[in-house]
Amino acid sequence: MSEARHTAPTSVVIGALGAIRSAVIPAAAIAFSGIGDGGRFWVAAAVAAVAVTIGVVTSYLGWRRLTYTVSEADIRVESGIFSRAARSVPFERIQDVSLEAKLLPRLLGLVAVKFETGAGGGDDLALQYLTTADGERLRQLVRERREDGAAMVAAAEPAGDAPEQDSGEVLFAMGPRRLFTFGLFEFSLAVFAVLGGALQYIDDVSSIDVWNVDLWYRWLKEQGSTVATLGPYAQALGAAAGLIGLLLVGSVTGVVRTVLRDWGFTLTRSARGFRRQRGLLTQTDVVMPAHRVQGLVIGTGLVRYRLGWHGLSFVSLAQDSESASHVVAPFARMDEIAPIARSAGFRLPDAATDWHRASKRHRTDRAIIDSSVFVIAAGVTAAFAPFGLFLIPLGMAVIAVAANLYAWEFRRHAIDDAQVYASHGFASPTLGVATRLKLHSAEIVQGPIARLRGYASVHLGLAGGAFAMHGVPLAEARALRAAVLETITATDFSRLDAAPQAGAQTLNSAQPGFSSNFLAT
């Protein structure tokens, strides 16, 4: 595939339909306004026709002038109708190749091919659109040429380090029942944002000024007068019905958003890495090479944590829908997360993990700082407000102190021969796990109070994410930094991407001087 190729010709249809959709709003605004008086509908039709024509012509010319070339070393995309731009991305810079099919392109048998380069945002490369078969072939071809260097390194390794055969093992999947349960925890009031957009549209195309404060004030006053005529029980029932309605709308919205995003969620593991497929209207197909996984993040929520539900994400060099991590098990039990972590070459903490909590001085300082605002507010209230009101901010200060004391139980860190761990949060704890071989730097950070009190934050450089341990006693922080720097010094980073994860851990265990109890020394 060394010659220049065009994307699928039917992609012009997508651009034409987009032009029609863009022409609807201005045409409707003209049709319902006073522009042109009696002939405003003809004006609206003319504006729509011109906009659609320009859109179709632009879409066709853009398709004709867009070509892509896959060479032995890179992929090159040339685009632009009048001003030409050519971008080449070497295969070794491509972190991930994913396929995305929104509803309309999928109906036409088209997919968007996205090349994650680690640059993030608009700096990533995308081809819109190819046929599904061409998209699969292009992803496979780019993946093979990306791994040519790794294959050459693997060929030089002992036979025992040869990569496994493509098994396509399903590691995690969510059916309709699991999706519905997950959606109930994804409470969302995004529907009100949609209603706000609809009100803005009404304001644009009609004479009703929906943002007129007096209009809403008169309506609320009328409704308030009606409610005032009801008895206290009817008012209480009305308030309860309103609250239940709000909860119902938020729950239904959460379920709908979850089903649309995660329908058919499947995570499989093959010799090439992890493959995640999901989506109802917009289907995505993402492949994450195992050696590109930099770390794990296991998160949860306030309620779901109490019921044993967690979410697993891979910290990767590539981004996932503008998120820093790839979600691979959004709603799972810990016994479902553990095999996924093992398949990625990570080990979750267990009873033998040597956990260390943050400094008690850090705990005390956080409690004092967080409660001081409420203590000051209590003093001001006691001096100028009616007697007894100062108890409210004073009670908040007590709650802030209690919350910090309780949170200290969950603010902890650990390190062993192969990995580092950090946990924080008491209402919805989050656990981070990173491989020592993938860390790039170690930094000790101290503010004025931390310097006086003898503790610090340890920031570990992790490609594609952040890893930090807060409130670490200074002696432990220095020991942590020394151990991580020892690993960094002993690691040949030019071979990391080529080496399998298991082989990397074997290399790590062979490094001298690593002890899980080093913090006690």
Describe the structure.
The chain is an alpha+beta fold. Among the domains are: 11-146, PH-domain like (Roll), CATH 2.30.29; 190-261, no CATH class. 45% of the residues lie in helices and 25% in strands. The protein has 16 helices and 20 strands. The chain has helices at 11-31, 40-64, 103-107, 132-146, 148-155, 176-185, 190-205, 213-228, 232-262, 302-306, 334-343, 360-384, 391-407, 448-453, 474-489, 501-509, and strands at residues 67-70, 74-79, 85-90, 96-101, 110-116, 125-131, 169-173, 266-270, 273-278, 283-288, 293-299, 310-320, 323-332, 356-357, 412-415, 419-424, 430-435, 439-445, 455-462, 465-473. The strands form 4 sheets. Strands 6-5-4-10-9-8-7 form a 7-stranded antiparallel sheet, sandwiched between helices. The protein has a 7-stranded antiparallel sheet with strand order 13-12-11-17-16-15-14. Helix 1 (11-31) runs antiparallel to helix 2 and helix 12 (360-384) runs antiparallel to helix 13. It is globular, with a radius of gyration of 29 Å. The protein starts with 10 loop residues before the first helix and ends in a 12-residue tail after the last helix. Mean pLDDT is 80; it is low at 149-166 and 499-521. InterPro entries: UCP026631, YdbS-like_PH. Keywords: Membrane, Transmembrane, Transmembrane helix. Residues 63-140, 412-482 form the YdbS-like PH domain. It comes from Erythrobacter neustonensis. The chain crosses the membrane at residues 12-35, 41-63, 179-202, 236-260, 367-384, 390-408.
